[in-house]
């Protein structure tokens, strides 16, 4: 993929290499001064799921990295009793560790993702530590959590229904 960024992350337990390369028009790059032992690297391209902490070792053979499309979740958020779209809803996400049913914490940014007229689209480009979950919340309704999602799903339609009530 042309323009893919390659960044070294960790080598021998430290972040000392600070190498940054960009793939050419054929999606190839060459690192001539790579150490002979394993380096953890990040491979990044907007519009794709990032590869983080990828272990790479210098080799005479070409190494191929495959970037997956982002996980894109879209759907409708409706009132569970009337099936009408919720006028304004906030969506946040969490990473759900393998073996757990509830996330340790929810990710709230300074500007939460607010959607209008009951439709939303949420994109994940950062790999999680397991699975992803979404939570929809709106004034006058109890928040609801989605089913667990995996990056392999690619594009998902997921409708969520909120029950009237009060929540956190």
Give the low-confidence spans: none
Extended strand count: 12
What form results from the Cα inertia axes?
elongated
The assigned structural class equals mainly beta
Main sheet overview: 4 strands, antiparallel
**Mean pLDDT over all positions:** 90
> Number of helical segments?
0
Taking strands numbered 1, 2, ... along the chain, how are they ordered across the largest sheet? Answer: 2-1-3-4
Write down the secondary-structure element order. Answer: EEEEEEEEEEEE
**Which value, in Å, is the CA radius of gyration?**
20 Å
**Strand content of the residues, in percent?**
35-45%
Fraction in helix: under 10%
Distance between the termini: 44 Å
Short structural description:
With 168 residues, the chain is mainly β.
Tell me what the structure shows.
The chain is an all-beta fold and 168 residues long. Helices cover 0% and strands 40% of the residues. The chain has no helices and twelve strands. A four-stranded antiparallel β-sheet has the order 2-1-3-4, with no helix packed on it. Strands 5, 8, 11 and 12 form a four-stranded mixed β-sheet that branches. The protein is elongated and about 65 Å long. The mean pLDDT is 90.
Key words describing this protein structure:
168 residues; mainly beta; elongated; four-stranded mixed sheet; 12 strands
């Amino acid at each position: 993929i042309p323009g893919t960024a390659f960044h070294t992350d960790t080598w021998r337990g430290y972040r000392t290499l600070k190498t940054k390369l960009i793939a050419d028009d054929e999606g190839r790059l060459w690192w001539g001064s790579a150490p002979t032992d394993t380096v953890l690297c990040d491979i990044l391209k907007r519009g794709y799921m990032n590869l983080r902490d990828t272990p790479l070792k210098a080799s005479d053979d070409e190494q191929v990295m495959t970037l997956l499309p982002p996980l894109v979740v879209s759907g409708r958020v409706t009132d569970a009793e009337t099936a009408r779209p919720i006028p304004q809803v906030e969506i946040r996400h969490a990473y759900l560790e393998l073996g757990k049913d509830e996330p340790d914490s929810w990710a709230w940014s300074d500007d939460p993702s607010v959607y209008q007229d009951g439709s939303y689209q949420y994109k994940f480009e950062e790999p999680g530590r397991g699975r992803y979950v979404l939570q929809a919340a709106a004034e006058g309704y109890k928040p609801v959590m989605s089913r667990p999602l995996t990056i392999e799903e690619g594009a998902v339609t997921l409708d969520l229904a909120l029950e009237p009530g009060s929540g956190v």
